[in-house]
Amino acid sequence: MKLFPVAAVGLALLTVGPRHASAGDVETGILAELNLARTQPTDYARTLRRDAETDRVRSGWSRSDGEDPGALDEAIDFLMRQEPLPPLRYNARLAAMARAYVAEQGPSGEVGHVGPGGEGFSQRLRSLGAQPGMAGEDIYYGSMSPAEVVRQLIIDSGVPGRGHRTNIFTAGFKAAGAGCGRHTIYRSMCVIDFAGGFVER
Q1: pTM score above 0.85
Q2: Half-sphere exposure of 130 (CA within 13 A, CB side)
Q3: Does 43 have pLDDT greater than 80?
Q4: CA separation for the pair 112, 12 (Å, rounded)
Q5: Mind giving me the DSSP string for 34-67?
Q6: Is the CB of residue 18 less than 8 Å from the CB of residue 144?
Q7: Does 56 have pLDDT greater than 70?
Q8: β-strands 187-195, 89-90: how paired?
Q9: CA 174 → CA 104, 166, 194, distances in Å?
Q10: Cβ burial, residue 10 (10 Å; 0-12/13-18/19+)
C-alpha cells in the first residue's frame, strides 16, 4: 500500500477492493464505521487483532510491507488506550461537499486536496460556512468497503503523524459527511470531511 500525507489533512491510496457497491450505502457505512471506532475503540482494536490473527483481514490493510511494518500493531495499541468519544453526527452539507469533490476530482484522475480548478480544502470549507480552523479531510482511493476504508485510515501506514487517524479521533470534531464515487485511475475514491461547527449565515 502506498500512502501520501498532505499537510494537516490526508489521503490514502489502495488499489484493491470490491468492484460494485452503491455509493450511498458506502457513505452511510463509512459514518457508521467511524462511529463504531470512536465510541468503542477497545472493541475495535480487538476486532483488528482478531482479524489479523485469523488471517481474515484484506491484504491491503493487514500486510507489513516494509514501508511501515509496525503500523497495525501501533494502531491496535492506540485504540486500546483511546477513550471513547461521542459519535459524529451526519451533516448533509459536509456530505454534499465531499460528493462534489469526488465529482470534480474523480474524472480528472488526480489525487490530493486541491481540485482540478485549483480550489483547496480550506476554500471549499469556507464556501460551506464551516470554521476552517476546526475541520479536517481524509481521502481514500481504491476501495468501496466502509470497513476497509476506515480501518486503513486508522492504521495509517506510512503517514508521519498518523494524520488520518488524528482526524477520526479528534474530540473537537462533532460532525462528518462522506462522499464516494468513481476515480478514473484508482477505480474509486471516498472523501470524508469533518468539522467542529459551522458559522451562521
Answers
A1: no
A2: 29
A3: yes
A4: 9
A5: HHHHHH-HHHHHHHHHHHHHTT-S-HHHH---SS
A6: yes
A7: no
A8: unpaired
A9: 26, 14, 8
A10: buried
